[in-house]
Structures are given as C-alpha cells and as structure tokens.
Design a protein that fits this description.
Number of domains: 3
Shape: globular
Domain FAD-binding: 6-180
Structural class: alpha/beta
Protein name: FAD-binding domain-containing protein
CATH superfamily of the largest domain: FAD/NAD(P)-binding domain
CATH topology of the largest domain: FAD/NAD(P)-binding domain
Mean pLDDT: 94
Number of strands: 22
CATH class of the largest domain: Alpha Beta
Strand content: 25-35%
Number of helices: 12
Largest sheet: 8 strands, mixed
Radius of gyration: 22 Å
Distance between the termini: 49 Å
Helix content: 25-40%
Bound molecules: flavin-adenine dinucleotide
Oligomer: single chain
Low-confidence stretches: none
Organism: Candidatus Schekmanbacteria bacterium RIFCSPLOWO2_12_FULL_38_15
GO molecular function, one term: FAD binding
InterPro entries: FAD-bd (IPR002938), FAD/NAD-bd_sf (IPR036188), Geranylgeranyl_reductase (IPR050407)
C-alpha cells in the first residue's frame, strides 16, 4: 500500500537508485523506489562490471575486501558477497594478432557481478523499510511547490498514469533517463551518438591470456568493419569459490549500422580468433542502448536530483553510480532537515566526475578505437608495442593516455618507416569529440 506522500521518490533501481534509497532510509527518510523491471537484480543490460581500482577514479580509491566494496575517501562500505576476478592485463589486439598490453601489480581492474551487488543493496533497502514498486515506469518529476515534487508513473502494462508526491525526487533511471528529459538542464546537453551493445556470456572459451579485459581493435573483426568487440573474464552470480570465470563478450556499434547479433555470431564463427571459441557455449545474453550526451553540470533542479548515469556522459560505472547515490541520499536528508540545498552534491559531482571536466570526453573517445587507420596500419603500429607491457589500468579516463604515450614513444621510427601513419596518428590526436566519433564509427 503506497503512502500519499514520501520524503523521497527514487525512479530507477540500478546501483545509483538503490544506493540513494538505502542511504536516505538509513537517514530516516520515507522512501519509494520504482523500477520498470520485474526482478530488479536480474541483469539483461550489458555491463562489464569491472571495478576500476586505479587510485583517484572519481576522486576515490576503491577495492573489494572482506565481502565489501570499499571507498577509502568516502569511508563507505557496500556489501558484496559474490565472486570476483582480478584482471591481470588490459589487452588491445589487432586482426593480425599484434598487441598493446597494460598491466600492473594490483590488476588492471576487478571484475565482479552486478546481480549479486544489486541483490545485496535491494535486501538492505527493503530491510530499512523502502517501499519498492516493480514493473513501474517513471514518466516525469515536476517541482510543483517550493518543497513538493510530483512524480508521474504508470504500470508497465497499463496506460493509466498515476502520481505520487514527495519532498525530493531522484532521477536514477540510467543513461537514457526519461526523468532528465523533463529538466531544464537537459536542453543544455549536447548529443553525440547512439550506440547499441550485445553481450554473450560464454563458457568454454580457450583464450591464451590470463584473466584480462581484451579489446579487438581494427575493422577486420566484423563483416562490415563497424563497432568494437571486447571481452573479459567474470563470474556468474551463482559462482562458488574456485569456479572458473566465464567470458563476457560484447559487440558495440553505432545504432544505424550493422546488426549486433550478426556481428557477434560472425566473430565467434569466422573471426580471426574463432579458434578460441570453438567449444564455447552461450549461457546468457544481454544488450544495451546508449545515448551519448555531455554531462549535466548542475544535476539538482528545485528538489529533483539526477544521480548515476542519468546526468552523465555514457557511464559513471557502478562504483560511481553508488558514490553519487550515497552522496545524494546524505545531502537530501540534510536538506530536508536544514534547508541547506544540494550544493554539496553538485560540487561533489563536478569535482569528482571526470566527464564533467573540459577535454575528458575527447580523451576517452580517442581511446575507444583507432578507426582512422586501416588494419594493415594498425598491425604495423601494434607490432611496435607487441613485446612490451605498459603500466596501466582499464579506466576510460587514463588508458587512452597510456596508449597514446606508447605510440608516441615509437613515433621517430614510425615517421621514418611509415610517415603516412605518423601523420594520421598526430592529426587524429588533435581532433575534437565529434570528429573522433566520425572517424571511429
Ligand atoms: C557495455 C557496457 C559496459 C560497461 N562496463 C562497466 C564496467 O566495467 N564497470 C562499471 O562499473 N560499469 C560499467 N558500465 C556502466 C554501468 O553499467 C553503469 O554506469 C551503471 O549501471 C549506472 O548505474 P545507474 O544506476 O545510474 O543506471 P542503471 O544501472 O542503468 O540503472 C537504471 C535503472 O533504472 C531503470 N529504469 C530506466 N528507466 C526507467 C523508468 N523510466 N522508470 C523506471 N525505471 C527505469 C532500469 O530498469 C534500471 O534498473 C558499462 C555499461 C555498458 C553499457
């Protein structure tokens, strides 16, 4: 039975929404959490679910210790009881098998399981008295009075629109946020592109590498040369200690281009590395559609706050979604007690979320692909780094620079042997975000 009015209504029960709801309930607020999914922890949306353990990722240092995800600076521990795998290498491999490998003693990231994470957060939220509405689609949040927000929603199978009042509403409905569409701040966002992703969870893959995150660079991996294929070792939700990880293989491509299923099936059967997959069995599939927008810099409007991917450029990662959810829960509780506003949350977001900073989007996009070179040129360039290991992590914000520096250190040789590649490489690194996307489509 729903209340007439809540202190907080959260739309979306991913890591951001669950963490906001749990934190607000711990602070004594009455909370309603709604999600369009029937089974909130079930994962049908593609996500590598790597914890980026590089120091200062989103301004904090994260690790998994004793069944908890630790945030050193926030002093936060989030229950995580599943298996996890330390990924030893981040590998970019060309159609000709040439590589650029990053590694470091801490591992390049930690692959964990999102379903286990969400189940733990949901359990905690429900124990704290959060009301949970499943199969419910949030439509809109409106500031109707100085201290009152109306949230409209409908059941997944119903056209009847209902509403509920609250003192603060939280848009935690992910990267394609419906709620953010209704905010003034949405109009200031710049749109880049829509990507879709398909994922296969595979057992029985014979990769020659240790547990790793592998990006298959170059156009020769898919029939029409579009998009990016990558894979990592990770555990299923029901994995036991000592179980071998499975492989999560993903194909991401601009939405107007080729079919993800045809691309991924072709890669498995006819790709340059099909021998790794000859005995592989698909045990689960997932997919995602991603709209790339610039970040919302001021993610609080009246008493509506956007957290996690909703105000972000593509992704905050699960670890970021939880950080911002935690902060939003705390600051909202404080605001409802003292009317202090959401500045602390907004400042934290702008200070710690890298994609809010000038130049970060360009930097990350440059790391996604090197689509400005053909496969012969890519094989040549990666041939120069094939026998070396570079210090680095999986992070979108730092790995592109490691890659760039690795190639720059070879540039004198490239200029002599293949001046046309040197010229393209240097020109690419002067491009802006839109030009990079055009070249990497
Ligand atoms: C291909 C890919 C790889 C990734 N790899 C990693 C990685 O390695 N590590 C990592 O940490 N992160 C990774 N991410 C990003 C990660 O998935 C997100 O950053 C994180 O899930 C964001 O959490 P969120 O709670 O903001 O959004 P989401 O997890 O998207 O949750 C949003 C929730 O809102 C619900 N919802 C959506 N719209 C509505 C609506 N209108 N009404 C009600 N409910 C709604 C959805 O059902 C969902 O439960 C990856 C993402 C993709 C696509």
């Amino acid at each position: 039975m729903l209340k007439n009015k809540y202190d907080m209504v959260v739309i979306g029960a991913g890591p951001a929404g669950l963490m906001t709801a749990k934190t607000a309930a711990e602070e004594g607020l009455s909370v309603l959490l709604m999600d369009m999914k029937r089974d909130i922890p079930r994962i049908d949306r593609s996500c590598c679910t790597m914890l980026i353990n590089e120091v200062s990722t989103h301004g904090d240092n994260c690790s998994i210790v004793d069944n908890n995800i630790h945030y050193e600076k926030l002093g936060l521990k989030v229950k995580y009881t599943g298996q996890w795998a330390k990924l030893e290498q981040s590998i970019r491999i060309t159609p000709g098998g040439k590589k650029l490998i990053m590694s470091n003693p801490n591992g390049v990231s930690i692959a964990y399981n999102k379903e286990v994470l969400l189940r733990g957060l949901l359990e905690d939220a429900e124990k704290l008295g959060v009301d949970v509405l499943t199969e419910t689609f949030g439509l809109k949040a409106e500031n109707i009075k100085k201290d009152e927000v109306r949230v409209s929603f409908r059941g997944n199978r119903s056209r009847a629109v209902k509403d509920v009042k609250c003192r603060v509403a939280v848009a935690a409905d992910g990267v394609n946020s419906q709620i953010v569409l209704g905010l003034e701040a949405f109009r200031k966002r710049k749109f880049f592109i829509t990507f879709r992703v398909a994922s296969y969870f595979l057992e029985g893959v014979e990769s020659p590498f240790p547990p790793a995150f592998i990006i298959f660079v170059g156009r020769g991996h898919t029939p029409d040369g579009n998009g990016a294929i990558y894979m990592l070792d990770k555990h299923l939700a029901d994995a036991k200690p000592g179980d071998k990880p499975i492989i999560d293989l993903m194909y991401a491509t601009p939405v107007i281009k080729s079919s993800n299923k045809i691309g991924i099936d072709n890669f498995l059967k006819n790709g340059k590395f099909s021998h790794w997959f000859r005995s592989a069995k698909v045990v689960h599939t997932a997919a995602a559609t991603l709209n790339f927008y610039t970040c919302i810099q001021e993610p609080a409007e009246g008493n509506i706050i956007a957290v996690g991917d909703a105000p972000s450029f593509i992704e905050t990662y699960c670890q970021g979604a939880m950080m911002y959810g935690y902060k939003a829960g705390k600051v909202s509780a404080q605001h409802l007690k003292t009317n202090c506003g959401y500045k602390e949350y907004t400042d934290y977001w702008k200070k710690t979320f890298e994609y809010c900073w000038p130049g970060e989007i360009e930097k990350a996009l440059k790391g996604y692909g090197i689509g400005f070179l053909n496969d012969d040129e890519i094989d040549y360039l990666f041939g120069l780094t094939d026998n070396e290991i570079y210090d680095g992590y999986v992070s979108e914000n730092t790995a592109p620079a490691v890659m760039k520096d690795a190639f720059m250190s070879k540039m004198d040789r490239v200029k002599k042997e293949r001046p046309e590649i040197a010229e393209k490489f240097l020109k690419f690194h002067q491009s802006n975000a839109h030009e990079v996307l055009e070249k990497t489509k």
